[in-house]
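In response to the reviewer comment on reproducibility (Comment 2.3), we provide here a single inverse folding case reported in full, input and output, so that an independent group could reproduce the run without further information from us. The C-alpha cells appear first.
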C-alpha cells in the first residue's frame, strides 16, 4: 500500500492512502445529485415542553460576526484587489469566509482532517478537483461538498474572478499532501507544520451527500423542492425555499437555540430577519445574516409578495433544538 504523506499540524495524526482514495472513487457515486427530494415529508416528532435555558445576557455579535453582511459592502472593502479573503463568521463551531480568486488563480492542494468543507460559488467559474471524483466546473449557485481528508484544489478558470463562500468546522486545520507540497507550509500563529502519517482514510459520499448541487439549475429551473445539502456531524447546510409573504408581526418571536449560533446565506430573492436586539431588516441574494446563541430570531421570505426566495440555513447540528413560545405551538 502506497502512502500519501501529509504536512499536518502537530496535533493532527491521521493516514491517507491512495488505495483508500481509489476505493472511494470506485464507489460509483454520480457527480451531480438528483434534482428532487421525496414528495412525502416525515411527521415531526412530538415537542418537549421544558424549562429551557436562555442565554442572559444573550451572546453579542463579535467581529467579524455581524447581523448583516451585505455583499455590496464586502466587494467595496476589497475594490481594486484581484485576490482577497474576507472573514464573516467566527463562532465556537464554524468559520466562514468570502474568497475571490483572480482568473488563472489556483489554491494549494489541501484537505481538512475531521470535517467536511462546504462551498457556495457566487461569481465566475471555479474548477474543482477533488481526489476520487471527476473534476467539474462550478458557476453561480453551485453548492460543493468536500469530505474530510479528501485533498482538493480550486482554480478560477473564467475570464472574470471567481467569488465563493467557504465553510469549515472551527476546530479544523488544513493538511497539505506532501507529494505535492514538498516544503513545510508557513507557520500559522499557534501552529507549526510537521510531516506526519495521518490515519483514518478519506470521507465519502452517499445518497444524501453528493459532490455538488447546481442550485439554479437543479432546484430553481426544475421547480424542485430543495432540502439539506449537508447533514453531517458538526455541519448542517439546509436549503429552505418559499414565496414572499407580508412580514409577520413583532409579536411572532420565532425561536432561539440553546447552545449554538445560526446564520444564513441568501441564495435567491430576499430574506427578512427579525433578531432580538436589532431592527428588522431585509437582505438580498448574496448577503449573509446571523443570529448568535440565545437570540430570539425569525427569518421569513421578503421582497414583493409571491417572489421566490431561498435561504441556506447553516449551523453545526442537523437535529439542533429550537425553543419556541408555548403560544406559537412550535410554529413560526
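Designed residues, in position order:
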Amino acid at each position: 500500500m502506497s502512502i500519501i504523506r501529509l504536512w499536518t499540524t502537530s496535533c493532527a495524526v491521521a493516514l491517507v492512502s491512495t488505495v483508500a482514495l481509489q476505493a472511494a472513487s470506485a464507489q460509483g457515486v454520480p457527480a451531480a445529485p438528483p434534482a428532487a427530494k421525496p414528495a412525502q415529508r416525515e411527521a415531526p416528532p412530538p415537542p418537549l415542553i421544558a424549562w429551557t435555558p436562555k442565554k442572559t445576557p444573550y451572546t453579542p455579535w463579535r467581529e467579524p460576526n455581524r447581523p448583516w453582511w451585505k455583499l455590496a459592502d464586502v466587494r467595496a472593502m476589497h475594490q481594486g484587489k484581484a485576490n482577497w479573503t474576507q472573514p464573516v463568521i467566527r463562532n465556537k463551531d464554524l468559520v466562514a469566509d468570502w474568497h475571490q480568486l483572480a482568473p488563472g488563480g489556483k489554491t494549494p492542494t489541501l484537505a481538512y482532517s475531521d470535517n467536511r468543507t462546504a462551498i457556495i460559488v457566487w461569481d465566475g467559474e471555479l474548477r474543482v478537483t477533488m481526489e476520487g471524483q471527476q473534476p467539474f466546473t462550478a458557476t453561480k449557485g453551485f453548492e460543493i461538498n468536500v469530505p474530510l481528508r479528501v485533498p482538493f484544489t480550486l482554480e478560477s478558470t473564467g475570464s472574470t474572478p471567481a467569488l465563493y463562500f467557504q465553510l469549515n468546522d472551527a476546530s479544523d486545520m488544513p493538511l497539505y499532501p506532501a507529494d505535492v507540497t514538498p516544503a513545510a507550509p508557513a507557520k500559522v500563529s499557534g501552529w507549526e507544520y510537521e510531516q506526519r502519517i495521518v490515519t483514518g482514510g478519506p470521507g465519502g459520499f452517499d445518497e444524501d451527500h453528493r459532490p455538488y448541487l447546481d442550485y439554479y439549475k437543479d432546484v430553481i429551473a426544475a421547480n424542485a423542492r430543495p432540502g439539506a445539502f449537508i447533514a453531517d456531524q458538526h455541519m448542517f447546510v439546509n436549503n429552505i425555499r418559499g414565496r414572499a409573504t407580508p412580514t409577520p408581526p413583532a409579536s411572532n418571536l420565532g425561536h432561539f437555540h440553546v447552545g449554538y449560533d445560526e446564520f444564513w446565506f441568501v441564495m435567491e430573492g430576499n430574506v427578512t430577519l427579525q433578531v432580538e436586539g436589532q431592527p428588522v431588516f431585509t437582505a438580498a441574494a448574496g448577503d449573509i445574516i446571523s443570529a448568535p446563541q440565545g437570540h430570539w430570531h425569525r427569518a421569513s421570505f421578503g421582497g414583493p409578495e409571491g417572489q421566490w426566495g431561498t435561504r441556506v440555513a447553516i449551523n453545526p447540528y442537523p437535529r439542533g433544538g429550537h425553543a419556541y413560545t408555548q403560544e406559537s405551538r412550535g410554529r413560526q
